[in-house]
């Protein structure tokens, strides 16, 4: 499948607005402030999938006349809402919503995704954005995109909103940046948007996440904004006023997507050659280590000694990070590499032990 790039604007695409449409006044006032601050693509939740049944689940259809009023007041703006069923799609299209997105709780379920894809079949002019599934499963995310591609959607995009976790984390949803990076390697032309609000869960982290997304060449950001964030009916801690949002975005550095000149390209290629050489050395050293693991494995097998050696492993995992620190390497990074290496040693030795 070849998903095409349809977004040609050089600037990052900013989609912003309240987590939820709450009242006509709240929506119109927030949109007016957003337009005053230069924003033109507005998001607003109409239906909200919530974890617990007694949370605010969105105002529903009554939001459509409010959205219509906002668009009459500011004819240049576009509206994006979340859809989670064929019925939502039908209502959104009937009410001239410009952009649809599929939420993280929907992307996990191929039945729901297919139902929505069938409902938008033939819709050529509207962008459809697919949030990552709540669980870190790249195949599910790709599968959802493929379903929309298969029904002929031309303006497809992906939204990276982070992943649910049991691990303790500073994030509401851990970003796991390697997953959207892998998505981009599979679909290089896919429009990729970052959702700092749902990754962060709190205002203080928004800047750092948005900047990282720009450094990783995302095409845009979807960020929640509310006229009075602390009074928001949902996601109060992660929303910003339109003015604060503009200030934050003004302080973000937007990186060049392409190489500015030949000297720069030469310099980059020179360093990349050195990285290639260093990687060859790294792999040679790794291969030497794994040969020793095979040797010790053969020996332990002959002497009928167990593969896993707790004392030795404890020593390794204790002192490698200490050695690493002396070389100014991050201790946690090195620890996780050694955990992977040890897993591989066990795998190799298990193979040896299973040989006749
Ligand atoms: O020291 C050993 O006994 C090994 O087999 C080597 C090794 C390693 O990878 O360093 C692998 C498995 C053991 O649990 C401990 C260490």
Automatic annotation (TrEMBL):
The Chorismate mutase domain covers 262-353
A single GO BP: chorismate metabolic process
Keywords linked to the UniProt accession: Transferase
- Tell me if Lipid biosynthesis is a UniProt keyword of this record: no
Read off the InterPro entries from this record: Aldolase_TIM (IPR013785), Chorismate_II_sf (IPR036263), Class-I_DAHP_synthase (IPR052899), CM_dom_sf (IPR036979), CM_II_prokaryot (IPR002701), DAHP1/KDSA (IPR006218)
Q: Does the keyword Transferase apply?
A: yes
Supply one GO molecular-function term.
Answer: transferase activity
Q: Which SUPFAM superfamilies match?
A: Aldolase, Chorismate mutase II
Q: Which residues form a coiled coil?
A: none
What Pfam families does the record point to?
A: CM_2, DAHP_synth_1
What Enzyme Commission number(s) appear in the record? 5.4.99.5
Q: Report the enzyme's class at the first EC level.
A: isomerase
Question: Can you name this protein?
Answer: chorismate mutase
Organism whose genome encodes this protein? Marivirga arenosa
